[in-house]
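User: structure tokens for this one?
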Amino acid sequence: MRLKPVMILLYTTPCEQRDVFRKGNRQCSTSKRHRCAPRRLGLSLPRSIALLTLQVLTSEIIIGRSFRELEERSVRNKMQQTLKTLQNEIDALYGDARDYAAWDPTYQFIERRDPNYIDTNVATDALLSIRASYIAFVTLSGEIVYARRQSLINGERLPIPAELLSFNGANALFLQVAAKNEGISGVIVVDGQPMLIAAHPILTSDGEGPSRGVLLMGAISMRLNWRASAILPATISRLSRRTLLSPFLTLQLRVS
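Assistant:
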């Protein structure tokens, strides 16, 4: 913003001799008649520079504050949109995990270990259709009955991450929740990258127990990368009620 310098002038009309006011008109009477000349007083140069500098600094502070507020508002709006989208993806993943877990064929599979169940229901195309890159069936004792991880691009089989090879330690939380017929979902860290996770107790199609284990589903969100997740621990807590445990970024308890 360009500021035009302003010259502040003060005008006075003193007479060199005594003033005489007659009939409401201002006149000047002296022993020697002469005109009263107005005298113009200007601010000194240093004072003018000081006022101009103050005006410029004040304008810069106001404009700078406005830009910062606009930028912060834009960042907040983008973060809220990201969190909303992320929560929608987590909800969708949890819904798929619940559909698989609270199902009579799954309830029977966890005990009978029939391979036909896997060939029919957990084939590559079946997981690709629901955008799931990981699935695991785990008993309440922590035994992994079946686990699979694949690429979301072409369905290629991938190694199971080290963080999901055992359900002791922090991962025992999934079993503890399943034993209470509750679900859990959120974001965990595998292979140094964030992954959406959803877990649901294995029940009958009517949602009856007792639970025979837990079914876990995982997915990689294209919107979730380390650039965004670097600020997730501080901001994602707005999603809902949370339990924070390493190596988890955030988990949300759910009622089945």
